[in-house]
């Protein structure tokens, strides 16, 4: 029972799961694209090797940039990913489907010739979106538009086009006015953006090496054709068949997850995934724009936090309520898709918001039990490295920097909840 583990912060940190000094995010195709809250591949690797067998089906209902799916493929496990974010779907699809190296090399040679032909005085492009003009200087905007159009016009498979689109996507921040050291969308008035053609070629060269290594290893292991799919779907209601999954391995979004939508806006605007950021946010779990006016949650732990929070900031209390109620639906969905005796492995951390401790891990554990799971174990690990904003302003609750005198580190540790159906 969950009560055997509460409070989670009293658990002893398990150094075996900390992987201090390990940069496994650079292995295989994991390093293709920056992504917030990317959890260490070593965590997934250890779970897969300890709790699954070759041929098992692994699912991730918050697939993000595909960490779980890449590790599943290199271990010969069938995998299914779900994410509501089209940028995530694009990245994961490319990372999990390596392409014959010679094919990419030939196409890249053609692209480099196209880049050489660029003429700033001749090239013109239609106005795309005012937010693109906000983030990019005209010279860089035009070069990016040129690359984007060149990729789309290639007489190649969509898989090959997507490879180069991911490369372009990952350099957008470097080539923009976005403050480079921040995951928070803000302009750096002193930034000198990277030159798009040079940045793109550097990114492609890096991805070619990773694709080559991944392709050769999968081919050697005879796992190239191991099924791996990523669906643009809502984690609360997926198309995954009932009882078809051996293990769910996932890291849910943190509370106030609308910030995730903001972080991917450059790619979303350039690739025509969105036209309005507010509408884009509405699809994400736990936003203020979600349904629900009642501040009620089945989790007793969550209800206490909601009551505390509504006295300080009603809007945030609504967001928290929506988030936890959404997470309960996700827990029910996990239980549905898992086979009997199957397990869910949830990597999640607690945080502090407006000086109120948000015990997300404990709440998710409670929601799993309410959904029919039995908590088998809870592992506490420190976070030596994680691509997520880790500092909030104690007064506003917004992400900030260490230079802010009101700042506080909010994600120093996280938990792996192991729940059995």
Keywords, separated by commas or semicolons:
two-stranded antiparallel sheet, globular, 11 strands, 2 domains, 421 residues, alpha/beta
Structural overview:
Helix content is about 40%, strand content about 15%. With about 425 residues, the protein is an alpha/beta fold. The protein has 2 domains: about 1-100 and about 225-420, Rossmann fold, CATH 3.40.50; about 100-215, no CATH class. It has a 7-stranded mixed sheet, sandwiched between helices. Helix 1 packs across helix 2 (about 65-75), helix 3 (about 85-95) crosses helix 7 (about 160-170) and helix 12 packs antiparallel against helix 13. The protein is globular and about 65 Å long. Mean pLDDT is about 90; it is low at about 385-395.
